[in-house]
């Protein structure tokens, strides 16, 4: 059974646009990060924040690690 759902990049950006302008998180965490769409959008908006990502699926975790390592 595969019930994985991933946030499209466009939706991730739109979701963040609803947060107050003065919102400046020190830490951003996503424990069901998938391929990291929300975290990528958050990192673009708040590049000084510490990003914490995890996912239960090893394949997704590998994608996240490759994204982080560049």
UniProtKB/TrEMBL annotation:
Matches recorded under InterPro entries: SAM-dependent_MTases_sf (IPR029063)
Domain of life: Bacteria
Name of the protein in its database record: DNA methylase adenine-specific domain-containing protein
């Amino acid at each position: 059974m595969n019930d994985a759902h991933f946030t499209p990049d466009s939706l991730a950006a739109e979701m963040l646009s609803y947060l107050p302008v003065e919102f400046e998180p020190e830490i951003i965490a996503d424990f069901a990060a998938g391929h990291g769409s929300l975290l990528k959008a958050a990192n673009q908006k708040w590049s000084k924040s510490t990003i914490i990502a995890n996912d239960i699926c090893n394949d997704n975790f590998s994608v996240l690690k490759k994204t982080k390592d560049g």
